[in-house]
Amino acid sequence: MITCKGNLALLSTAHTSLLIRADERQPKLLYLGKKLTGAWENASLIAPEYDGTGFEAPCSLFSPWGGTDFREPSLLIRAEDGSVAADFCLRSFGEAERTKPNGLPVSYGEDSCLRLAYGEKRLGLTLVLEFTPYEDSDTYSCLTFLTNERGEGVTIEEFASLQLELWGKDFSFTTFDGAWACERQRHTRPLNGGKCENASYTGSSSAFHNPFTLLTRPGMAVGVNLVYSGNHRTIAESDDSGRTRLITGINPFNFAWKLEKGETFFAPEAVFSFGHSDREVGLHMRKFVQEHIVRGVWKKRARPVLVNNWEGTYFSFTRERILNIARAAKEAGAELFVLDDGWFGRRDTDTTSLGDWTDYEEKTGGIASLADEVRAMGLSFGIWMEPEMISEESELYGAHPEWAMKIPGRAPVEMRHQLMLDLTSPAVQDYIVESVSKVLTQTKAAYLKWDYNRHMTDTFGQAVGGEYYHRYILGLYAVMERLTAAFPEVLFEGCASGGARFDLGILCYSPQIWTSDNTDARERIAIQAGTAAAYPQSTMGAHVSASPNHQTGNASALSVRFAVAAGGVLGYECDLSALPEEERAAIKEQIAFYKQYRETMQFGTYYSLGDVSGEWAGYITVSPEKDTAVATVAVLKKRTGVQNVRAYLRGLDEGALYRVSVREGAGVKEIGLSTGGLLMAGLRLDGIFDEQDARSANPVFTRMFVLQKL
Ligand code: DGJ
Q: Of 375, 423, 578, 657, which has the highest C-beta tally within 10 A?
């Protein structure tokens, strides 16, 4: 809800409020916190005042470089003559219809916003900020854009999506960082009178630093994220005058955008949420993603249990082997078979054929008939592609070497033996749309795994210089927009060497993303918990793979691998047809169990479980009515003599009585009755764990619980 009184605006969600004052030079953030009640317009005693030292305004919602504010700016605009000063004045303020930005995906579900427009007279610019409250998820979005109304060309060198300035300097800065196979590990550091940065330089949102960032102190947390898949940067700066500034947006590193007369530049949409703790912010963010980012027919549709052949066969498969795996998948109760890398061109290794999206008939025996045969078994058919890439050894490269991203006169950098296509070129965009459409039509695929297996280097093509990275992402979104519109029923799963592009931009097109190439149950616990800090379980692809694990060599029991993978969208990734009979039977039971509780597991409210000692971890998903919940608890450091490990369940109805059961095969075995309140006070964990893989040197012990309200 948005209410304006004088120069004040109150934006409210179910449990939080945002109070903004439209001052002459910059809007001010008066309040972000617990929902305000009563006469909120009497805000003068908490309002920040001009501190008398020039242009340095406290708690501003944007800060152009060029005055006496020498902290990190949110805007740096260079005029044609080289000067960088900008001085904005209020033009208008009030509730308005939200603007739809050109070329960028945004959240949906609310039509109105608080719009603040500020004009820069000398440069002829208008800066607009639009804040939208999302009632149901206690989250706000901010869309910022700059229009060159009548001036000469200017160059935008920094243009943040959002600036928040909070009272106090005692915050901690939490980010979710990693690398290939260890994505989104949580790191927290104090912000001690300086700056902390969370940024990516790879051209994508990256496995190194996810854009989601938290600012916390006891009793308070603010989370920010970006609806963007490219280079991002969030920076927090605290100063001894007692403020902390948080800025998020496109990474200004190697960024410079020429804005000609009549043009508008949109910064990617930012989203932010207040909570009393990081866990509460996580709840808000997950709900927001589920309701206002993920879209299309798959938004709330039960996600199919899939079997993917990648770790089962890698590149070396035959039609017969694929059909055997598909048969075993059907027998186990899976619903979708996904043919991964290796089915096209002459793709027997990763050195060749990207860009040649034609059937490798000698291997597949005909991709269309292979897909038909899989469907005839009663499974849907899905396929892998890596549409943004090109191998030097390919027909496409022979025909269009100029489509590869490279700098004239310089040998391009290869990663995984491949180059990237120049998505800033409309001809390349058309080629991708055509080739992906052709594959989807030819195979009638119900699912597409869209992979992306390298970082950006040699950023040069139709666009050049400081515009390249952003124009690439605009090209990517243009392609995805066209394809998802043309194939609305297809389930797109994002992927980038595992989870290197897990962000809100991709989630606007792909309802789910492959979380990590690391399928080891122990390591997945941290990866999935880090991902779930801001993204719901229905967006996280999670597969059971072979033991010992191919990435880590760790052995773990099948039931442990299942318990962990069931924390996301469940799949299996191994040669199912080669497994011993008893393992296939166990998988059949796991899938039957999962299907029975899938609604709650995929779309229920997700709470991560775990204690600070790191001794145990897990998750619980609770149905909206709190009548069904599924909890998985994993003990990571089981020590002889330590018998008092307790799991503090969350999200249950305190006074209600629950029947507590443990998973047993496809069903459950009751272990007792207890109220939600008691279960949240600590469920005893000793003696109730699944069996172990005897080869495991350092096992993880898991158990899945089902709770049914009586
Ligand atoms: C990287 C992905 O993350 C894997 O799942 C697999 O699809 C390979 N690429 C195939 O090359």
A: 423
